Queue: 4 jobs
Job 1
Amino acid sequence: MKQLSGMDATFLYLETPTTFGHVTGLMIFERPSEEFDPYAAVHAKYASLIGELEPLRRRLVEVPLGLDHPYWVDDPNFDLDFHIREIHLARPGMVDQLADQVSRIVGRPMDRSRPLWEVYVIDGLDDGNWAMLTKYHHATIDGAAGQLMLNILTDTEPDAAPPGPSPAWEAEPLPSDIDLLRKAVMNLAGHPVKALRFQTRLVGQLADAAGIDSIGSAASKAGSAIKAIARLGREDGPKIPLPTSAAPPTPWNKPITGHRRFAMRTASLENVKQLKTATGGTVNDIVMAICAGGLRSYLQAHDALPDGPLRAMVPVSIRTGDEEDPWTNRVSAIFPELPTDCADPLERVARCREAMLDAKRLLDLVPASQLGDMAQVSAPVLSTSAMRLASRFGLAHRIAATPFNLVISNVPGPRKPLYFAGAQLVHQFPVSIVTEGQGLNITVVSYLDRLDFGFIVDRELVPDVWDLADMHIDEIGRLMEASGAEWVQEPQPAAPRRGPVRVVQPGDAY
């Protein structure tokens, strides 16, 4: 039995009926032969790893009354067939049909009485390829640990040996409520009183805000609670690099539903590197500039472009290499501005570069060992109550100090081909998280010579997510033209899409 760290547990406390804490990855593979059975290959591979990979077999045990962080325990009722599932797309099996399946799967919460992962084998793609959708709760692994999991699941050669039997493992009995409460009391005795007082004040303010008549006053009072978090770093605690001013409103900074839409596009990494050389930035700067330009185009198309820049939250790994548990979350964030208010593509690149440098300087003020302190001392019952109050009463999008508009993440991936049971990995599309008041997330993963973009949105707030995705790819062309950079690879055209299904009316010709 092992207790979750405060940072890991935070991803459980963030969950509400509309906000889910799982992260998902969509991998598309070639089919090595006509007789290849993707489901059988995936099932055999995971079966061989259950004894080796602890995150695959451990389930949550929550402390009564939410007095302490939950524990991981090996599941005594582990059932591999529950976790590995098979889907076959209806004909013709186009990319938007695949994305629709991803959207539905991502929009379902995970069963906390089971190990927090699911794998979907998706067949029937129109080009003969097949897909594997992995769904892990963020409490289990972060982005860096996800890449580690990918490395374990895949091979670097197509003719690697087939998986062998799993190492033996033995499930432990589930702890009793009395044992969990006893541990919680001992842990609470060592918690800083200041942290508990702070959280009590935060929940009290949210509760008061929910119960008063004036919506404006409610937003103001909830905003004061959030601002208290940012002020904490300027008093006698560690300097937490949170923004203290509001981000401008956008169409997706509103209460979210539990429904999602997903879209994906691929760009040439080599072309982005040409842009990096031509503009003097980094690959990450160029990715941020692509997002700034794509979002600007989308907001202009909807007559919703704010006068000032947007602000992004960019996750940053704070792994030192000395972690005892490679599967625990080690992540912080920076909050750079996105120059969506700037019409010049090259100026957007320059401003992105400066914004990223400024944000990283703030992050450097905080030792990595201190960044998880606030999460570690959080009382679960208070953290969870705060999130549910904010969600229930729609406070998130009304808070005066909503600190950022969306999450943008750029995850470096492998530069060599990977194989799964002899099937070569073609694409690795990330599918991340949207949260209350933040109905858009853009995540990018590099693989070989390409960048795979994943756009996950609230279904109601961004109904035209494919248009948004296409606008990001169009922005690369604008940057290439403005910078004079040379095209190393031709732009990859969008895959054919089925589009909306036409409903046949009486009297229509077939």
Job 2
Amino acid sequence: MPNSAMMVLLVEDNKDLAATVGDYLEASDITVDYAYDGRSALELSSTGRYDAVILDLGLPEMDGMQVLRQLREKVGKDTPVIILTARDSQDEKVAGFEAGCDDYIVKPVHLPELEARIIAHIRRTRGEVVNTVFTVGDLQFDVKKAEVTRGGQLLQLSPTCLKILRILMRESPNVVSRQAIEAELWGEDLPDSDTLRSHLYKIRKAVDRPFQKPLIHTIQGVGLRLEAVEDNQEETVSS
């Protein structure tokens, strides 16, 4: 899988595991820098040269969630941060997405899958700068024209609904928490809890209801995912 000058920061206190992951990625032409604790990670991330960050949560001295929040401030919202951890509870996953991670992978990790996810996140991030058309299944969003079509049919959405849909399409097929959507749309000036629910209802009504297969799926206790799900996968999500 050829990769164009990809550089990642691997934050992992287990040096043997870090070496195993790093060697595998570097064999795929992904350059890896290493940080074995949170403070080193924050210092290295301030250079702004990384295409993605892989972050363990069980770090010495500084908890990984605290590192994640500070990392997000340093690298900005466009640099993918992928949690790689042994913590597998739903609460931890939700907390990770709320703190700003783009993906959450539980150890033990299948290295080809990790590589594929890293590359997908980096390409998606790079693609948003040069490519203003998002496509998921038969749903297409031309950002420059502010036009959304599904199956060639033009959909009518308000400006706020377009912003929410763009977030979901940009992050697809990853799960996006409601809190993350609210934070990106409104920052600290959050509206009442029914506002986002109302916009999501309108998006589902336009994007899913007239069509045979839904694209917007609710992941209970985590958030929303926009994805064209195959028939044999549909039992794992709810629309």
Job 3
Amino acid sequence: MKRFFLNAALALALVGTTVACKGDKKNETEAGEAQTEVAASEAAAKYKVDTAASSLMWMGSKPTGKHNGTVAIESGVLNVENGTIQSGTFIIDMTTIESTDLEGDMKNNLDAHLRGTVEGKEGDFFNVQKYPNAAFSVTGVTEKDGKTYVQGNLQIKEKKNNIEFPVTTTMNGDTMTLESEPFTIDRTKWDVNYGSKSVFDNLGDKWVSDDMEITVKLVANKA
């Protein structure tokens, strides 16, 4: 997957869009045990992810506000059969995680804390020197309630859990675009525990929401 500085006022930024109020959670998904990842079938066509056109967006929250930002997609392949994703994997470059709502020292301090490049705070969030990548691998695709859901194993740090989220896919010639709806996960399932009320006591109003809401866009071209 898997996030403060000064008086911890910006400790809320973590990968994924987080929502502080339970009723505001979007497409909340339960983290389950990792499942067998789907192998590409012989009939599937390979689509290589265009990393420059693809993105992962996040926003984090605490009682008094929110931050948002991006993480770059490093690489990825989607295997497509009869216009439907059959399998695939994409790699997330955690060293690129950054906030997009801040500037100057505030941005630099927050980004460094998220990445774990602040001495003594390496493990607070993503510790990118030790865990430079996260990954998502498809384990299934289903239709329900009129929507398409992708199931897959999300690995952040040393934790791998199975999640699902709703997506829309479109084909334009030899290009496939996958866009997820915003979806919410519990970051502590990937040992991203900083400021979590479910992990630590006596945080007062310095807690950070466990909920992480993520939005993914993948643009992939036929190889």
Job 4
Amino acid sequence: MKEIRYQSIGIIHSDIKSLDNAPIQAVYSSDRKGWIELHPAYKEGLMDIEGFSHIILIYHFHLCRGVALRYKPFLDDRPHGVFAIRSPLRPNPVGLSVVKLDSVIDSIIHISGVDMIDGTPLLDIKPFIPQFDNRDGAKIGWLKDKI
């Protein structure tokens, strides 16, 4: 298989310093503040982002080691396949979080709802658009009756 390479576009900063202190999901840390230090080469890409209330962050789980194809998540007492859970122990350690966009000052993006560890490499930013990102009638599999 051909190797795929990505470059970080910035660094996510937060008060979370270790895996032990990280919230399970961003939705459980809506008040936690953080900021993104975007690399200067990408500053122009921020044009018009302030019109969005929320953004999607795609990032690298830089502290996670190993892969667990089956894992017991925090909301259940039995294991599930890695593609049916949101564990960071993945074949490709890529994370995704929807956060609130508080402000943009130069190349610094202030955000709320942070669940990333300080120093997390940022791969991409996309605007959260409810009309595109929500799906009516979506099923949640084994999570039904758990959340």
